[in-house]
Amino acid sequence: xxxxxxxxxxxxxxxxxxxxxxxxxxxxxxxxxxxxxxxxxxxxxxxxxxxxxxxxxxxxxxxxxxxxxxxxxxxxxxxxxxxxxxxxxxxxxxxxxxxxxxxxxxxxxxxxxxxxxxxxxxxxxxxxxxxxxxxxxxxxxxxxxxxxxxxxxxxxxxxxxxxxxxxxxxxxxxxxxxxxxxxxxxxxxxxxxxxxxxxxxxxxxxxxxxxxxxxxxxxxxxxxxxxxxxxxxxxxxxxxxxxxxxxxxxxxxxxxx
Length: 257
Description:
This protein is α/β, with parallel strands linked by helices and 257 residues long. The protein has eight helices and seven strands.
């Protein structure tokens, strides 16, 4: 229970990986700030699940693309719980199209949430962080593997990973460490939507190449993220941890290796 009483702000926490992490941190009896943009009902369900797991939670609406909204999110967390110990930049949105079909509005929105919003979250949170504070960026496989239609989001996630390295150096003297988490293919509603009619192909072919024999589940990824939120991971700084069951290492089906 190393996170008991610690305050963790998670952007985009009403569903997907953010939601699973929120509930996992509830088991650590953490104070969890569940950020959402539109889906208040899902955010409220997440709050109840965190409470049922043993933690305390509050849902705060904020569009991470808006700097003022990010500041209000952090201020709301401080007003409720007194400080911010960990921030997790998990929110993302993009247009899943070939880069030749991407418009400037798509670029602006993707970068505003994934890059600008990440930096705004850090800028607003760090003044409220005690020594031992933690910044976490949730990246994605498209930051280093080419996935159809993911060029824009992959570029934004790659930028996040670079920012993680710089923040580790810049925030380290204040006792704040920075990490990234890069999940591989995981069976979530979001990934199935992004994969579309390619999901069956991914499942068949990528599973055959995954040494562990299965895609990491959202709860397995949440376990890694929970560890990286905890003081036990204090020596990990400036690194982005890939959680993909070893799939990114494979060049042939595991059965043939």
